[in-house]
Amino acid sequence: MTGKKRIFLGVLSVLIILLIAGVLLLLFILKNKSSEIYDLLMGSLILLFSIVAIFLIFCIIGFIYLVYSKSNNRTLNKILLTLIDASYPVLQILGGFLGIDREKFQQSFTNINNFLVNSRHEKYLPEELLILTPHCLQFNECKFKVTNDIDNCRRCGKCQVSDLIKLEEKYGVKVAVATGGTLARKVVKDIKPKAIIAIACERDLTSGILDVKKIPVYGIINTRPNGPCFNTKVNINEIEKAIINFTNGG
Ligand code: SF4
Fold first, then answer.
1. pLDDT tens per residue, range 117-165
2. Record's superkingdom (predicted)?
């Protein structure tokens, strides 16, 4: 298990410990102070904490099972993805209290999501696959509007939009450039892909993965050598590897 995955699973473990501690504390209070309304309130809280803790323990055990057995149990996979998505907001807050860097936490989440998406071993036709990239990948002085149609790119090579077009032509996948979350959602709605390879910064990628519930999203974090949202870059080899993975070799 890579270090990045461990960050998310570590925070998840801390949450389980806190929930178990909460249950024990409530049991202690219940034992020492008793009245009908008090019993009912405490009993409900104990039940709630216990159920959440059991689900999260199941999540960790299930994840470790998938990592080491290399199984492609789709039901387990979907349950884990749902549990991880549902627990993300609480875990992010807890991670903040524990002093974990937000970007590192989001990288860890993306890593776990990608592992689960990959371990499904589901294959798609190239045309069912969408590569979705943010507008900041385009050279900032380029005059051609690639957000409407990526084929408006003149392939001058000043930015990696031209590399994405090469991948589009080589594998027959769809490529779209979106200026923000709203447009990205519209593109997904219009194209109706069966799987998405999304390129973005940690924050946008995380919210995109959490947003798209029914389609598997493989996230690739961009690099920002010129600062955020400006002439960003992406590892093209990583995208190509993801395409090959999704399409059974293209
Ligand atoms: S590669 Fe395409 S999008 Fe990038 S600067 Fe050149 S023409 Fe513009």
1. 998 888 999 999 999 999 999 999 999 999 989 999 999 999 999 999 9
2. Bacteria
Nearest to 11 by CA among 107, 77, 78: 107
- Asked whether 162 and 155 are in contact (CB, 8 A), the reply is yes
Residue 116 confidence (pLDDT): 92
Q: Residue ranges of the domains in the chain?
A: 3-117, 126-247
d(CA 239, CA 218): 9
**Spatial separation of the C-alpha atoms in residues 40 and 33, rounded to whole Å:** 12
- The domain defined by 126-247 folds into Rossmann fold (3.40.50)
Q: Are 107 and 153 in contact (CB under 8 A)?
A: no
Distance 97 CA to ligand 1 centre (A): 43
Q: Which band of pLDDT confidence, cut at 50, 70 and 90, is reported for residue 30?
A: confident
Does residue 165 have its Cβ closer than 6 Å to ligand 1?
no
Identify the burial level of 174 via C-beta atoms within 10 angstroms of its C-beta, where 0-12 means exposed, 13-18 middle and 19 or more buried: middle
- CB of 166 closer than 6 A to ligand 1? no
Counting ligand 1 atoms within 8 A of each CB, the residue from 136, 152, 156, 230 with the most, and so the one to mutate, is 156
Which pLDDT band holds residue 43 (cuts at 50, 70, 90)?
confident
